[in-house]
Amino acid sequence: MFYSWNSLYLIPKPLLPTYCELVGANPSVRPNPKDIIEKLRKPGQFFNNDLIAALKFLDEIQIKDENEKHRFFSNLSTILDNIPDFISKNKILPALLTAHEFSNVGSVLLTPLFKVFTCLHYKLELPF
Prior knowledge:
Distance between the termini: 51 Å
Helix content: 40-55%
Number of domains: 2
Number of helices: 6
Structural class: mainly alpha
InterPro entries: ARM-like, CIK-Related_Protein
């Protein structure tokens, strides 16, 4: 939460008008947060990017058909380079493993799976 107008420089410039609407002095005039999210997901807006689209797909993966899953996992390896490692490790890797176990997507999972494994920084310790 920003307590001072001096902190506005911390907010990305494309979000400043939206932020000002959300913290308006009159609560009855403030926009509905759902409407704001929908507006920011439209083409050319702040939340319309590959990361948000991938996370949204993973949240809705249970209702997707096999063709949609196949298309998503085929394209996933191209966007993994732009996804932060902690999201790849904690969100995408579990989804890949679950998809491998419970769906018929097949070998299309291997490329993104190996790409996620390369971002893991586990130290191999030998027992001897």
